[in-house]
């Protein structure tokens, strides 16, 4: 549609709707104007005289909120297929990291790359996600580990949001791994993160949230706490990579800071679940990493359900544990590998993902909500999780502007 028609009301009819939490029982019409959903109703309430000037967007299909990928490491240099081969021969992710490979391999390649090379490589990955229905994406730093290189990554992330049709939120993950320069001085590195990298990135408007890899191969609870305190002092929300390879208490810790989310959480225990439920901290499930590392420890889905912890689903797109940029595949894996229902998986990439990035207005279909929407050429919302099939997107809207179809 020509952009000149974009200020007009758009009208869809006879849709199956997943509203961000549930599939609505009847078929609906939906109208969008001025960037928002302005009206919707069941088909028998449609009065054509109310929509005479609207652009007819057709009928049928499924409408969902635009997908939100709330945990990615999309900006990085190089690739790690060599490490993939090592793991196939029996080496574990943790062993490779202890030998100086893993994240640190990507740190070297990312430091060597300039902003434009990082931008071009990440734009390709992000374009695949957009074509698969993503309208919002969170992007972390964490492969620079110096002031200049962390800022470089975050600037690239911001520019992706300015130049591609997608909302980008940025997360500072300077506490992702211990850089070689600080090999014997983890506390010294945490001091650099808290006293220099975080304030400088924040002053440049590059930080929407702060993350820490709280794990025995990364940072301790005490070191993570210092980063969270520095973030809260700047009024920035926090999140954590927690309980991925072992139980280290990172989820309970991030909940103490009313964190947005605790992510991975394969080894999460009852205390962590109770703390997250109490704080409203989202549990972010990363089935791509679970699959790639051939993890056998399942996140405690049932216990989280019982405790009422909101569960999100994300790609964790990164060159090590999840070299995957197809969000709808994550819906499928969340069901087949982690045993979510298709509705839970969909809520995990819409309503609950919005909560995990601190944007609770997004990820919902309701009158007045921002019109970040997808219309799919399928018959029922569950099909999105059931079949692994690119090319089902019919329309995508970002703030009411048609960016696909
Ligand atoms: O979310 N666990 C730590 N960080 C990433 C992996 C990063 C990498 O291996 O490059 C994750 O799995
Ligand atoms: Fe991650």
Automatic annotation (TrEMBL):
Residues 62-389 form the Amidohydrolase-related domain. This is Imidazolonepropionase. It catalyses: 4-imidazolone-5-propanoate + H2O = N-formimidoyl-L-glutamate. Its cofactor is Zn(2+); Fe(3+). Belongs to the metallo-dependent hydrolases superfamily. HutI family. The gene is hutI. 4-imidazolone-5-propanoate binds at residues 80, 143, 176, 244, 321. Keywords: Cytoplasm, Histidine metabolism, Hydrolase, Iron, Metal-binding, Zinc. It holds the Pfam family Amidohydro_1. Its EC number is 3.5.2.7. Fe(3+) binds at residues 71, 73, 241, 316. NCBIfam families: hutI (TIGR01224). Zn(2+) binds at residues 71, 73, 241, 316. It comes from Halomonas litopenaei.
